[in-house]
Amino acid sequence: VLLPIGVAMGGFMAAGVVWLSRRRLSLSGELAIAIRNREFCVHYQPLIELRTGRCVGAEALVRWQLADGSYVKPDLFIPVAEETGQIVQITEQVIAAVGRDLGAALAADRTLHVAINLSARDLEGERLLGLLDDLTRRGIEPRQVWLEVTERGFVDDGAPRAWLDKARAAGYVVAIDDFGTGYSSLSYLQKLPIDALKIDKSFVDTVGLETVTACVAPHIIELAKELRFMIVAEGVETQAQADYLLAHGVHYAQGWLYAKAMPVEEFLVFANT
Ligand code: C2E
Ligand code: MG
Ligand code: MG
Ligand code: MG
């Protein structure tokens, strides 16, 4: 009686694997076309200084704009682009878009900054550093450009670490993204070449609650303060969370409590009000 089920399951799973790899192949094919046609644009999510409530910058979040005007969210294509290496070309388009969109605003207001997400595969060679330097030719100062890298980008002391050291030496601000979700232990933090730490949304979700994971955020915050990092909380959705974070010394916050990611025209209005 069990045999047919096993066979059926095996058949189903094999079909699933084939379906997945075909889909991946076609997604990377579609990405190649999208890269060629420059179908990527950037939406900006405001970053808020908790003490003043002021907008002090934005995180650049890539969007793939389809012909019908709809947007594909990065979680659906970044993993494949990272696997195939296409991420590097997407990052180039993101950096170019940031320059076009925010070059003038950043040059006019030194208190604003923009955060750009980089993947581990971006952290090699001179090309990307050169593109970032093009931003400074638009009158943007390197310290106005934050580079967000997840913990995976920092593993071992290899090429990515050397790349980040070079970027910091040039004046760019390096932030560790989604902190707490990777492998690094808290004690490892002090060895990393970073200026800022972004606390992952999953920990922000728990602050002030009486749950087991609720004790993680205060530890991260205390250590980050001791190491004199700038601290950003991501995914802030409630005023109670914002109050807690401010009271515990977190500097910046980002989340739907303030605003979702938006096209640049809307962001520029938001930043000036
Ligand atoms: P991330 O860097 O951690 O960015 C934050 C994500 O959380 C964004 O999703 C943002 O829209 C979302 N978010 C912000 N505030 C809230 C909130 O209050 N509640 C909830 N539920 N979500 C919130 P998004 O835009 O879909 O980006 C997802 C991820 O894709 C990013 O996570 C980042 O890792 C990656 N990504 C985005 N743009 C780029 C890029 O240009 N290059 C690379 N390599 N990765 C990117
Ligand atoms: Mg990020
Ligand atoms: Mg993040
Ligand atoms: Mg995150």
Using brief descriptors, characterize the structure shown.
273 residues, alpha/beta, 8-stranded mixed beta barrel, disordered N terminus, 20% strand, globular, single chain, binds ligand C2E, binds magnesium ion
Set down the secondary structure blueprint.
Elements lengths: L1 H35 L3 E10 L5 E11 L5 E2 L1 H11 L2 H22 L4 E6 L8 H11 L7 E6 L8 H11 L3 E7 L16 E4 L1 H4 L11 H11 L3 E5 L4 H9 L4 E3 L9 H8 L2
Parallel strand pairs: 2-4, 4-5, 5-6, 6-7, 7-8, 8-9
Antiparallel strand pairs: 1-2, 1-9, 2-3
Bound molecules: ligand C2E and magnesium ion (3 copies).
One magnesium ion binds next to β6.
Please summarize what this structure is.
The protein is an alpha/beta fold and 273 residues long.
Detailed description of the structure:
The chain has about 270 residues and is an alpha/beta fold. About 45% of the residues lie in helices and about 20% in strands. Strands 1-2-4-5-6-7-8-9 form an 8-stranded mixed β-barrel, surrounded by 4 helices. Helix 3 (about 85-110) packs parallel to helix 4. The longest helix is centred in the N-terminal third of the chain and has 35 residues, at about 1-35. Residues about 1-15 have low confidence and may be disordered. It binds ligand C2E and magnesium ion (3 copies).
Spatial arrangement of strands, main beta sheet: 1-2-4-5-6-7-8-9
Quickly give the structural class: alpha/beta
**Kindly state the mean pLDDT as a whole number?**
88
Overall geometry comes to globular
Helix content, binned percent: 40-55%
List ligands, each type once: ligand C2E, magnesium ion
